[in-house]
Amino acid sequence: MLKQEIEDGQASLADPSFRHDVLRGFEMRPRAIPARWFYDRRGSELFEAITDLPEYYPTRTETAILQACCGEIAAIAGAGRAVVEFGSGSSTKTPILLQAVDPAAYVPIDISGDFLRESSSLLAAAFPGLTVLPLEADFMKPIALPLQIAATPKLGFFPGSTIGNMVPHSSVDLLRAMKASLGEGAMLVIGMDRIKDPAVLEAAYDDAQGVTAAFNLNLLERINRELDGTIPIATFRHRAIWNDDRSRIEMHLEALADVAFGIEGRPFAMAAGETIHTENSHKYGPRDARMLLRAGGWTPVAEWTDPAGLFAVILAEA
Ligand code: AVJ
């Protein structure tokens, strides 16, 4: 109820960490706001729409890879593991894995209790008899898993190339935290997007229909809604740029003219051409991906890709 009120703009109870990240982000040079703030209700809907775009290959490619490889994953990992998903139920991919591995329990972990409850009840309905143990937590740090599965070996699941949102040193921290959370004898299934033709990458993050542009610009609308912002949104445009040196797509919001605006009464200004950096999406070659896993304490044991080598699903052991 409270969340609804906030999103309808009837209450001014903004998330204090959103407020902090936005105000700090506009003071930083270059300006930057963490990508996690894209996902309000509207942002989540727009991301769903992105996953159906012809240019956005990752979701459909990873889904097809999982459909083809989950039998092998089940054979290698063995029966009776508890599946622990980092991020709550990526609706279409999770059932593919659960179907194949027939787990002892399913533990979705998410920082947002709302998303967690929604996806948990959908999965529990689709898999009657499966023990679903949702956990509201920040998986960037080691987590204490439910006691019921203390003695059960774990199979971590981190699809979607979500790890690409992090700079390499944070990815390594996350992989180590996952290893600590999952414990002795754990395995991990992780999706990573591969380096490819920059034109293909830039199109995937700047589609012809403008859905990704709307997704990026929604962040400014969210700031206006939740933080009393007066940002003139029409004066900004979406940019998606391949940064070859850092092997990542960067999304920015670029001011098209000199602008001045307020956020919670504080004045801010940007000159024409200046940007706010809103997202990184790192891409990994086959060796880069394996080296990243090893740096995070994991040993790669198998990997699968699509015929065009656009995306990779890797199985690793602790
Ligand atoms: C959800 C982080 C995997 O980086 O491809 C899609 C988010 N941003 N289009 C990605 C996103 C713009 C997506 N991840």
TrEMBL record:
<dbReference type="InterPro" id="IPR017804">
    <property type="entry name" value="MeTrfase_EgtD-like"/>
</dbReference>
<dbReference type="Pfam" id="PF10017">
    <property type="entry name" value="Methyltransf_33"/>
</dbReference>
<feature type="domain" description="Histidine-specific methyltransferase SAM-dependent">
    <location>
        <begin position="18"/>
        <end position="317"/>
    </location>
</feature>
<dbReference type="InterPro" id="IPR029063">
    <property type="entry name" value="SAM-dependent_MTases_sf"/>
</dbReference>
<protein>
    <submittedName>
        <fullName>Dimethylhistidine N-methyltransferase</fullName>
    </submittedName>
</protein>
<keyword id="KW-0489">Methyltransferase</keyword>
<dbReference type="InterPro" id="IPR051128">
    <property type="entry name" value="EgtD_Methyltrsf_superfamily"/>
</dbReference>
<dbReference type="InterPro" id="IPR035094">
    <property type="entry name" value="EgtD"/>
</dbReference>
<keyword id="KW-0808">Transferase</keyword>
<dbReference type="InterPro" id="IPR019257">
    <property type="entry name" value="MeTrfase_dom"/>
</dbReference>
